[in-house]
Structures are given as C-alpha cells and as structure tokens.
C-alpha cells in the first residue's frame, strides 16, 4: 500500500523556470490538496480538489496551477518559479467526510535560485 | 473562517517529563480535531483524533480531549522520550471534509 507518493523529493530551479510536482494516491480518495510549509508559518493550503475535474484555490494560490484529470493524480505546476516559492511542498489526500484523516506524502524540498 | 492556534515553541524537555501542548480552535458547527506529528525530514503522520465533544483521542502514550466548552484540544503525554522529538500540529476539519486547517506547529525537543 503506497499511500501518497510525491516526486521529486528535492529540486533546484532557476528563477523563471517551470516545473511540475507530481502527486499520486492509491486510496481512491476524493479529496486531494497541496500545502507549502515555511518556517514559522505552519502549512498553508495552495490548491485543492474534491474530485476529478474539480479544483479550487486555497490560501496561497498565486504562481501555482493544478489539474485533476483522474482520481489518483493531482500535479502542481509552477509556471515561472520565483525565489519566494522556495519551500517544502506536501501533497495530501483524504475521504470527503469530516472525520477522516488526511494522508501526506513525504514532501518535495524546492529551492529557487 | 476556521482557525487553529497553538502554543509557540520550541518546547525543550528532559526525558520522562510531562508534556502539554495547548491548542485552541475557532470553527462553526462541530469540527473534527486532529494532532499530527512530523519527524525530521518526513511528512506528517496522524497521531490521534477526536470527532465529537468530550471524545478522547489517544495513541503512543499521547492523549487529547475534545473540549467544546473551551474550544480546546490540548495534547498531553505523561513521560516523554527522546524519540518524541518532532513538530506537532493541531488541525481541524469542518463537517463537510472540505476544509482542513492546521495550526503553526510546535517543535518539541526532548533531551536525554
């Protein structure tokens, strides 16, 4: 049971480059989300999805795009990386009822230089 | 909107000391409450949860009670170990499962 798988684990980008962070889950969860974790800021929600074809913005969506073509995959795209996007990114999935826990990937440490 | 407040860290304790990490929340309705733990270099793992008022969640010697009257979900452990050193996050989920809000996290260091 793989759970939530994120790739890559580490990435260094130059300012202006684009890249996609991959996230896949094998638990048939409807809800998937992306967070960024910065020192002293906790986890901040970037985008989320409640099912295939449905996405919405979280607290800090600027500079990021998402799509949800399948239940399993929820990639996060950085169109033009900026140093302010240096962070650790976590993908999470869960069922849609309020009492279910969220399962997290291992994280992607992104540095933009 | 919903929000979670945690005590500021870092918290440094000696092994076998008693631990309390305070968590209070603001939410409409009856949210579910969670504690997550993040060990160095890893993702977040569920530590315990409580889904209704007066429920007590427990796991690995940690406990937290859902107190609706004080909107609190404080984490406690009677005797911490060095292996408990981690960052602890309090979180809530609204009734519909579409809003999962985290506190800022509290870093715990346990010294031998």
Description:
The complex is a heterodimer of chains A (113) and B (112). In chain A, a hairpin with an 8-residue loop joins strand 9 and strand 10. Helix content of chain A is 0%, strand content 51%. Chain A starts with a strand and ends with a strand. The mean pLDDT of chain A is 93. Chain A has strands at residues 4-7, 10-13, 19-25, 31-38, 42-51, 54-57, 64-66, 76-78, 87-94, 103-104, 108-112. In chain B, strand 5 and strand 6 form a beta hairpin. Chain B is globular.
Give the SSE string of chain A: EEEEEEEEEEE
Secondary structure class of chain B reads mainly beta
Query: Mean pLDDT of chain B, nearest integer?
Result: 92
Main sheet attributes: strand count, strand direction, barrel closure of chain B = 6 strands, mixed
Outline of chain B, from the CA principal axes?
A: globular
Distance between the termini of chain A: 36 Å
Q: Radius of gyration of chain A over alpha carbons?
A: 13 Å
Amount of beta strand of chain B: over 45%
Question: What is the tally of beta strands of chain A?
Answer: 11
| Helix content, binned percent of chain A | under 10%
How far apart, in Å, are the first and last alpha carbons of chain B? 41 Å
Biggest β-sheet of chain A: count, sense, barrel? 7 strands, mixed
Quaternary organisation of the protein chains = heterodimer
Q: Count of helices of chain B?
A: 0
Topology:
The complex is a heterodimer of chains A (113) and B (112).
Chain A: E1 4-7, E2 10-13, E3 19-25, E4 31-38, E5 42-51, E6 54-57, E7 64-66, E8 76-78, E9 87-94, E10 103-104, E11 108-112
Parallel strand pairs in A: 2-11
Antiparallel strand pairs in A: 1-3, 3-8, 4-5, 4-9, 5-6, 7-8, 9-10, 9-11
Chain B: E1 3-6, E2 11-14, E3 19-21, E4 23-26, E5 32-38, E6 44-50, E7 56-59, E8 62-65, E9 75-77, E10 86-93, E11 100-102, E12 106-111
Parallel strand pairs in B: 2-12
Antiparallel strand pairs in B: 1-4, 3-9, 5-6, 5-10, 7-8, 8-9, 10-11, 10-12
Q: Which features characterize this protein?
A:
heterodimer, A: 113 residues, mainly beta, seven-stranded mixed β-sheet, four-stranded antiparallel β-sheet, 11 strands, 0% helix, 51% strand, B: 112 residues, six-stranded mixed β-sheet, 12 strands, globular
């Amino acid at each position: 049971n793989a759970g939530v798988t994120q790739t890559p684990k580490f990435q260094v980008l130059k300012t202006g480059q684009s890249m996609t962070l991959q996230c896949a889950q094998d638990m048939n969860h409807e809800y998937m989300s992306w967070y960024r974790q910065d020192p002293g800021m906790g986890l901040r929600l970037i985008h989320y999805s409640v099912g295939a074809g449905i996405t919405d913005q979280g607290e800090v969506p600027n500079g990021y795009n998402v799509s949800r073509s399948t239940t399993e995959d929820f990639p996060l795209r950085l169109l033009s990386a900026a140093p302010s996007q240096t962070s650790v990114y976590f993908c999470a999935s869960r069922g849609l009822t309020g009492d279910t826990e969220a399962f997290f990937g291992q994280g992607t440490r992104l540095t933009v230089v | 909107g919903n929000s979670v407040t945690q005590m500021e860290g870092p918290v440094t304790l000696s092994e076998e000391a008693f631990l309390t990490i305070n968590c209070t929340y603001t939410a409409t309705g009856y949210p579910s409450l969670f504690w997550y733990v993040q060990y160095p270099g890893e993702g977040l793992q569920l530590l315990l949860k409580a889904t209704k008022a007066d429920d007590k969640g427990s796991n690995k010697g940690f406990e937290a009670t859902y107190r609706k009257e004080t909107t609190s979900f404080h984490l406690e452990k009677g005797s911490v170990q060095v292996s408990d050193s981690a960052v602890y996050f309090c979180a809530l989920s609204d009734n519909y499962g579409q809003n999962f809000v985290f506190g800022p996290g509290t870093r715990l260091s346990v010294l031998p």
